[in-house]
Amino acid sequence: MIKVSSKGRYGVKAVYELALHYGQGPVAVSWIAKSQNISEQYLEQLMGPLKRAGVVLGMRGAQGGYTLSKPPSEISVSDVVDAVEGPISLTDCSSEDAQGCPDMDHCVGPDVWSRVQEALVETMASMSFQDLIELQRDHFKRNIATLLGG
């Protein structure tokens, strides 16, 4: 089973929370941690790479916290995952340096896994945090309609 690590999952959750509050000023780490069920200490570790990658801005002081560096529609899931995890590689033979693989000349793996990886990377790059907000709103509306019998 291939899994995105907790860095990637929690990074996306943290940026999603900031996207929900975009334009409302900085959001405290304690708020993000509580809202998204992430340890504050772990969240602080994730914010450094997100800040260095230009995804978030940090503000110090009593009213400090974090905010997105640009609108949610301009930040993709891959921006966040790349910032906290680095480039994704499903297998050794799907990475950019796969030329060093001794089985390259007679293995079907690189053809399969590089295409799967390309699709994954393209999907994450095309999915903005504004898209995620809208998906969640649609999901919520469907659940409410189901509960109300509609």
SSE layout:
Blueprint: H1 6-20, H2 29-36, H3 40-52, E1 56-59, E2 65-68, H4 77-85, H5 109-126, H6 129-147
Antiparallel strand pairs: 1-2
Helix pairs in contact: 1-2, 1-3, 1-4, 1-6
Brief overview:
The protein has 150 residues and is mainly alpha-helical. It contains 6 helices and 2 strands; from the N terminus they run αααββααα.
Q: Would you give an account of this structure?
A:
Helix 1 (6-20) crosses helix 3. The protein is globular. A hairpin with a 5-residue loop joins strand 1 (56-59) and strand 2 (65-68). The chain is built from 6 helices and 2 strands. With 150 residues, it is mainly alpha-helical. It holds the Pfam family Rrf2. This is AsnC family transcriptional regulator.
Order of helices and strands: HHHEEHHH
- What level of helicity do the residues show? 40-55%
- Beta content comes to 5-15%
Count the beta strands. Answer: 2
Radius of gyration: 18 Å
Unreliable spans:
none
CATH domain class name: Mainly Alpha
Please report the distance between the alpha carbons of the first and last residues. Answer: 38 Å
Mean pLDDT: 87
Domains (count) = 1
| Major beta-sheet overview | 2 strands, antiparallel
CATH architecture, by name, is Orthogonal Bundle
Q: List the total number of helices.
A: 6
Q: Which class of secondary structure composition applies to the elements?
A: mainly alpha
Name of the CATH homologous superfamily = Winged helix-like DNA-binding domain superfamily/Winged helix DNA-binding domain
Q: Which outline best applies?
A: globular
Protein name: AsnC family transcriptional regulator
Organism: Sulfobacillus thermotolerans
Keywords: DNA-binding
Pfam families: Rrf2
